[in-house]
Amino acid sequence: MASTLILFILFIGCSCGHPIDDYDPINFPMENPDLFGGDMLGFDSEDRSAVVDKRQLWERGVVPFVEDPGLNKTVIMLYGSLTFSKDWRAKLRTMETLDGGWLKDPMSKGKLSQKDIQRINMLYKCP
Question: What DSSP string runs through 4-64?
Fold first, then answer.
């Protein structure tokens, strides 16, 4: 009985113990948000900038995006030209039509299109 108790205490002591010298925050990347997340070729691991290479930027800051021509321009899921704009008072657009026109915000359209009504009915399983 005594040998079983000693073995049990030894087992508990070994399973709960951890080396004192091994506790270093750099070994726990989830606890240190300043660590670079992985080894990437061609990038300086000490650079914390979002864009580390000017070749990664789009020309004039415009990201090319082409909408499907079959898309109805008045559907409810579209955002307006000023949606998510950092400077909406200065009319800084985040989206525009291919010909440079404005996209209406869903709240300012005045009414729902027939496709909007169909999609809402499908979304909420209405008859």
Answer: HHHHHHHHHHHHH---STT--GGG-GGG-TTS--S--TTS-TT---S---GGGSPGGGPPP
81 within 8 A of 94, measured Cβ to Cβ: yes
Angle at 45 between CA 41 and CA 47, to 5 degrees: 120
What is the pTM for the complete model shown?
Answer: 0.28
Tens of pLDDT along 52-110?
Answer: 566 666 676 666 666 666 666 555 555 777 777 777 777 777 777 778 887 777 667 67
Distance CA(105)–CA(74), nearest Å, equals 9
List the chain domain ranges.
Answer: 58-124
Q: Which candidate, 122, 109, 123, 126, places its Cα nearest to that of 72?
A: 109
